[in-house]
Design goal:
The chain has 155 residues and is an alpha+beta fold. The protein is 31% helix and 20% strand. The longest helix has 16 residues.
Length: 155
C-alpha cells in the first residue's frame, strides 16, 4: 500500500460548485428532458474526472489526473509528515485563529498517520483569507478501502 497527497487552494465560491465535485449520476437524463439538464449532465460527465476541484468523496481523487498528485509515500508517517508541512506553510493564512494552533496541527498529523495505517483516507479543509479555501487530502492506494475498484493513477 502507498499514499498519495493532494492539495487544492482556490476561491471558496469555486469550491462550492458541488456538481463538479461529485461523479455524474450513472443514468443520464432522458433524451427528451430539459435541455439545460442534459447540458449540465454532459458538462459534469466531461469535467468531473479532470477538474482539479476536490471531490466530495476523498477516494475519487484516484481518478483525477496524475499531475494533481503532490507526493507519494510508502508509509503513513511519511504521508502524515507532508500534511504537517502543508499545515505549517499555510498557518499564517488561516482565517480561524484556532486552525493556527501548532498543538492542534500535531494532533491532525498524528490522527492522519493512524487513519492511513488502517487504510482510511484523510481529508481536511480550511478557510484562508477570504474568500479562499485550502483542501488537503491523503488517499490510500492499492487498494483503497472505500473504493477498491479504483486503480492507482500511476498504472
Amino acid at each position: 500500500m502507498h499514499y498519495h497527497g493532494y492539495h487544492w487552494t482556490g476561491a471558496k465560491q469555486r469550491f462550492d460548485d458541488e456538481a463538479l465535485r461529485r461523479p455524474p449520476h450513472p443514468d443520464p437524463p432522458p433524451a427528451d428532458g430539459r435541455p439545460e439538464l442534459i447540458q449540465r449532465y454532459r458538462e459534469v460527465k466531461a469535467e468531473f474526472p479532470v477538474v482539479d476541484l476536490p471531490p466530495l468523496q476523498t477516494s475519487y481523487w484516484l481518478i483525477k489526473p496524475r499531475n494533481l498528485i503532490q507526493g507519494t509515500w510508502g508509509t503513513p508517517k511519511g504521508a502524515a509528515a507532508w500534511l504537517g508541512d502543508q499545515l505549517a506553510a499555510y498557518a499564517p493564512r488561516f482565517d480561524a485563529q484556532s486552525d493556527d494552533d501548532t498543538a492542534r496541527s500535531g494532533r491532525l498529523v498524528d490522527s492522519a498517520a493512524e487513519r492511513l495505517d488502517w487504510g482510511g483516507d484523510v481529508s481536511h479543509g480550511f478557510y484562508l483569507e477570504r474568500p479562499a479555501y485550502l483542501s488537503l487530502a491523503l488517499v490510500c492506494c492499492s487498494l483503497n478501502r472505500a473504493m477498491p475498484e479504483l486503480g492507482c493513477p500511476f498504472r
